[in-house]
Amino acid sequence: MQNDLTVSESLNSFYDQFIAQLPSIGMAILIIILGLLLGSWLGNFVRRRLAAKTDDPLMSRFLGKALKYTLIIVAIMLALNAAGLGGVAAGILTAAGASAVVLGFAFKDIGENFISGIILAFSRPFDVNDTVMIGDNFGKVKALEFRYTKLKTFDGRDVYIPNSDVLTTPVTNYTEDGFYRWDFIIGIAYENNIDGAKKTVLEALRKEPNVIEDEEHENFVIEDELATSTVNLKVFFWVDTKDFRKMALITKGNVVKNVKEALEDAGYYMPADIQEIKLYGGETEFPVWLSTGKGEKRAK
């Protein structure tokens, strides 16, 4: 009987304390809700204002998210205090500090990526929609998150690169200044005039509207190699990379076609490679079969 009274008294005492704590619990829930709403609103507000003032969507988005999550954590701590659970809030902070070393070793990569993300938010070699090469990954930058940078490759793949790798790997930016230099090789016959061929090639380059030429970006042609059957000329020309890489590839194809047709129209011959067969020994005859499509004919 005494045990029943003890249990009943405990339940009544818990009920009375719960009723007494309801206003505090309600206030705590209200603080969390307000924290979520205020954090989301302020995060979006800061993101929009920074994006408008700095023209840097990557940094503005990153800082907006950081502010949002910081306010949410502060709201949770305040809610615990309002609910009379200040000891719990202090315990969480103490445990977080005490476990920081252990978690630092356990989640070292996550920590590195997070810190790298903060560094990249303020200092990085690319912006949104820049075409970059990070390691072996080539594509357009689409997002900078807390742990990774997202690339969209030109064959449609989504690549998520850890921020620590972005920070420590050489990054090649193809669109920072908006220009890229293509080159290709074309061969002319040995009996052709080299200077005349180079002039013809440069004239063909000037006729292509998407080829860039100014004081800083000079197109030129050089003698590259004396090959087996041709004198190889190497053609260098500049293109706009704002629409890299499709437009740049189309421009290169147009240039190759135009140069080939211009050389043909000017009477230059572009022979195929000649294969030489050398016989060593006492051979006096070497039979050859010529195919005419209708049959074969043997010649000596």
TrEMBL record:
Chief localization class? membrane
According to its record, how does it sit in the membrane? Multi-pass membrane protein
One example of the protein's molecular function in GO is:
mechanosensitive monoatomic ion channel activity
State the GO CC annotations: plasma membrane
Q: Please give the InterPro entries that the UniProt record associates with this protein.
A: LSM_dom_sf, MS_channel_C, MSC_TM_helix, MscS_archaea/bacteria_type, MscS_beta-dom_sf, MscS_channel_2nd, MscS_channel_C_sf, MscS_channel_TM-2
Mechanosensitive ion channel MscS C-terminal domain location: 184-267
TM ranges are 20-45, 66-83, 89-107
| UniProt KW keywords | Cell membrane, Membrane, Transmembrane, Transmembrane helix
Family assignment? Answer: Belongs to the MscS (TC 1.A.23) family.
Q: What is this protein called?
A: Mechanosensitive ion channel family protein
The species is Pricia antarctica
